[in-house]
Design brief:
The complex is a heterodimer of chains A (255) and B (248). Chain A is mainly α and 255 residues long. Chain A folds into two domains: 1-140, no CATH class; 143-255, no CATH class. Chain A has 15 helices and four strands. Chain B has 248 residues and is α/β, with parallel strands linked by helices. Classes of the chains: A mainly alpha (255), B alpha/beta (248).
């Protein structure tokens, strides 16, 4: 089934905002396909169609989906900065990108709209968008994706503390070495997921890593360091996560 | 007041030493004219320039410092535009030494072809703010005034008498306070830091210098108040507001 890709009009954005507001508390809130395709709410992007809806479960899958759409568009540069396009694409795949709370049955929309309607000019928030965030990380690390799994390997309908810490600092977001370190420390290749106990401020945890890296950035040109070089510079507290033994680590640390 | 002390011996490269001009023809290219003579970097040290923004970071190695005068042009084919981009300049030792920063300049807004080399003190950005009309946020290059995207008058509202009288002065007050609180004067200070430029503006308005060292005292608060009052006086804030009320 093919579908024409669209971008919201200002009326469409307003309606999407209303929906997000309602979805926070109303389990019955849903996006009607009719208004996603209504001319008053969305205008077609000529010649651009979706051959299939978004699939997969990880942020990497979301990024690949968007990359495929943009590569077929022929106007990648202009769509990359088009907030209304990103918002429509999220709305069209909303059930896939936004989980529902098991108790309230409401969408877990949150209070920050930038997860759904991107703020592309705000470097502190633009990475939060459920599609543009993974996409820009994917493009930045296209030639070494295995090293970026720390930020791309998580579930596409989640946004965790590690994503926020790494992606909210522009220098870190695009740094090969830092993404290598994040992936090596915190991403489990066995379970294809972030290791347990990563979030937090404790020894070796993600916030501590960002503090240490910020300190390094004052002294070193991080762009000139390779991932293994940077990893070797980290203090011993990060040895907890260096090997795939997080469960043991957590038990040991609790004692 | 936060004081940051540079223990790393890296030198802060001042803006006046760095000429970066973006030429807006495709592919984008940047014309570079650096004068690094005063910093006395080793001749074989390497100069690197990074264009960053919009989740991208384009890194170009310019070569050795040599005599300190660097003039060249380089293409940035990875970028389709430089809106929102800033530049970072780094000087590091020549390999195989570890890449310890010898010199650094960050948050440099480029000049574009045909543009006079002047910089705005306050960037304005239209964003989603819910029911909040405006707010000031602080980024590395300086403060940004964010205005609600849903505001019917848009950024034109910033020039209206209501905003000038009721908000612009508060914006000035907030930023002057933040500039003093953050300090931002590192050892080997960059005279072009945003804090320095705003404090200079405050000094011009208040008509007296401000000692930005140490904690914020009542004297600093008085200085901010005087700067704001002078600003309101310059703008004729109350008169303009009354006039606007009368006309409406």
């Amino acid at each position: 089934m093919t579908e024409v890709v669209r971008r919201f009009t200002s009326a469409g954005i307003a309606r999407f905002r209303q929906f997000l507001e309602k979805a926070r508390t109303d389990p019955g809130a849903a996006i009607a396909q009719a208004w996603l395709h209504d001319k008053a709410n969305a205008e077609a992007i000529p010649g651009l169609v979706l051959f299939s809806p978004i699939s997969g479960t990880r942020r990497l899958d979301a990024a690949k989906f968007v990359d495929d759409v943009l590569s077929r568009s022929g106007v990648r540069a202009s769509l990359e900065t088009d907030c209304e396009f990103w918002a429509w694409l999220v709305a069209a795949n909303f059930d896939h990108l936004c989980p529902k709370d098991v108790k309230t049955l409401c969408y877990r929309v949150g209070t920050d709209c930038s997860y759904w309607i991107p703020e592309l000019k705000n470097y502190r928030r633009r990475h939060r968008h459920r599609l543009s965030g993974p996409y820009f990380a994917y493009r930045a690390h296209l030639d070494d994706l295995p090293s970026a799994m720390g930020v791309l390997g998580t579930r596409m309908n989640e946004y965790n503390d590690l994503n926020e810490r790494v992606l909210s600092t522009e220098e870190f977001q695009t740094s090969r070495a830092i993404n290598y370190v994040v992936t090596t420390l915190y991403y489990s290749k066995q379970s294809n997921a972030i290791k347990r106990g990563v979030s937090g401020t404790g020894e070796g945890c993600s916030r501590r890593l960002i503090d240490v890296l910020a300190q390094f950035a004052l002294t070193y040109d991080l762009g000139a360091l390779t991932g293994p070089q940077l990893l070797a510079m980290l203090p011993v507290e990060f040895d907890w996560f260096r090997l795939e033994r997080e469960v043991v680590c957590r038990q040991t640390r609790k004692r | 007041m936060i004081r940051r002390i540079n223990h790393t011996a890296r030198k802060r490269i001042e803006r006046k030493s760095l000429g970066i001009q973006v030429l807006r023809v495709m592919p984008l290219s940047v014309s570079i004219s650096f004068d690094l003579t005063e910093y006395r970097f080793p001749r074989d040290a390497v100069v690197i320039i990074e264009a960053y923004g919009q989740s991208r970071n384009v890194r170009v190695t310019l070569g050795a410092v040599g005599d300190g005068l660097i003039t060249l042009s380089t293409d940035l084919p990875q970028l389709s535009n430089t809106d929102g981009f800033h530049f970072r300049v780094k000087v590091i030792p020549a390999p195989p030494s570890e890449p310890r920063l010898l010199g650094l300049a960050e948050g440099i807004a480029p000049y574009t072809d045909g543009e006079a080399p002047a910089r705005s003190l306050l960037a304005v950005r239209v964003v989603e703010l819910g029911e909040v009309v405006w707010r000031v946020i602080y980024e590395r290059p300086g403060p940004v005034l964010e205005v609600n995207r849903s505001l019917i008058a848009g950024t034109a509202y910033l020039r209206q008498a209501h905003f000038v009288a009721l908000a612009q002065i508060e914006v000035l007050r907030q930023i002057l306070f933040e500039a003093l609180w953050r300090g931002g004067e590192e050892e080997g200070a960059d005279s072009e830091s945003w804090q320095t430029r705003w404090i200079r503006l405050g000094e011009r308005l208040a008509g007296r210098p401000c000692d930005s060292d140490g904690d914020i005292t009542d004297e600093h608060r008085d200085w901010i108040r005087d700067a704001c009052e002078a600003f309101a006086q310059q703008r004729g804030a109350l008169t303009a507001l009354n006039l606007a009320e009368t006309e409406s």
